[in-house]
Write a structure and sequence with these properties.
- The chain is mainly alpha-helical.
- It has one domain: ABC transporter involved in vitamin B12 uptake, BtuC (Orthogonal Bundle).
- It is built from 14 helices and no strands.
- The protein is globular, with a radius of gyration of 19 Å.
- It starts with a helix and ends in a 13-residue tail after the last helix.
Length: 306
């Protein structure tokens, strides 16, 4: 029973990284912008957070540094695709490649560095509940922040005026522009906010989930987060559930190895990516369902003068 509690705790921990990044991409896509650079954003944010924690010893400053680095890169991406009308897909891929190369180059001397002793968190009283306590109530505060963020986005997108405007920009930017809304600035704000969330995911990965720095340590999580937005049909609550599902698949490999199940490690390592491909293949069998839920102007440039 204890092993299952540990598996559940590890699933929440792994799912938090995916949830934060996917929610950031969800905000981007609700405004009509596709950002394929999540992998690069998370890598640069992870490096910025790790370097900051190494030199200051403060996890909070590390989170802020990671979010700031990713938000800055996202702003550059936003200016390119929103004002200069570069291709969103090509620019996103370029950002991803830049992030991978830059983080590898700049992080060489930090590969052997170690972070200060990691703090342990527990909610008094609840953390001592058998099974549920270790699984649910001994997580880092950012894990609970991810859940709170989902609730906030559900309210913001579907209950607030600002959320309605954001969705209208993603559905019909021409109509929003005709009503006097600054479509480009709204899209840029969404891109920067989404980038900051990807940065928080990268910072959490390098300071809490796996407290070390190695080249390419994001290991495809940015791409999985991108797939999650489609898997969740652009709904925040479904993003969270999907993140925990993929987090569970990721941690299952370690659980099976720990219980002595003789499965090739290469097969276990590819499980999360195999699950991503299977889910996307199943979803793509019903393109009409995707079109109904997908923002109508997703990936399409907007020209105010047209």
């Amino acid at each position: 029973m204890e092993s299952y509690a540990l598996l559940a705790a590890a699933t929440l921990n792994a799912g938090t990284v995916l949830a934060l990044a996917a929610l950031g991409l969800l905000v981007n896509e609700k405004a009509g912008i596709v950002n394929l650079g999540a992998e690069g954003l998370m890598l640069c944010a992870a490096l910025a957070a790790f370097v900051t924690v190494v030199h200051t010893g403060s996890d909070l400053l590390g989170f802020l540094a990671g979010m700031g680095a990713a938000a800055l890169l996202a702003a550059v991406f936003g200016v390119l695709v929103i004002w200069l009308n570069t291709n969103q897909y090509a620019t996103g891929l370029a950002l991803s490649l830049f992030g991978a190369g830059f983080s590898a180059f700049a992080g060489i001397k930090y590969v052997q560095e170690k972070l200060p002793e990691r703090p342990q968190f527990a909610i008094p009283g609840l953390a001592d509940i058998p099974v549920l306590g270790p699984a649910l109530f001994r997580q880092h505060p950012v894990a609970y922040l991810a859940v709170a963020l989902v609730l906030f986005l559900v309210w913001f997108l579907y209950r607030s005026r600002a959320g309605l405007v954001l969705r209208s920009v993603g559905e019909s930017p021409e109509s929003a522009h005709a009503l006097g809304y600054p479509v480009r600035r709204i899209r840029l704000a969404a891109v920067v906010a989404g980038g900051a969330l990807c940065g928080l995911a990268g910072a959490y990965l390098v300071t809490i989930y796996t407290p070390l720095w190695v080249e390419g340590m994001v290991a495809g999580r940015g791409w999985i987060a991108l797939a999650l937005t489609t898997f969740a049909t652009w709904r925040p609550a479904r993003v969270l559930l999907g993140a925990y599902l993929f987090g569970g698949v990721t941690m299952l490999q370690f659980h099976l190895q720990g219980t002595g199940v003789e499965v090739p490690s290469q097969f276990l390592t590819m499980l999360p990516y195999l699950a991503t491909i299977v889910v996307l293949a199943l979803i793509s069998r019903n393109p009409a369902w995707i079109r109904i839920n997908m923002p109508a102007s997703l990936g399409k440039p907007f020209y105010p003068g047209s």
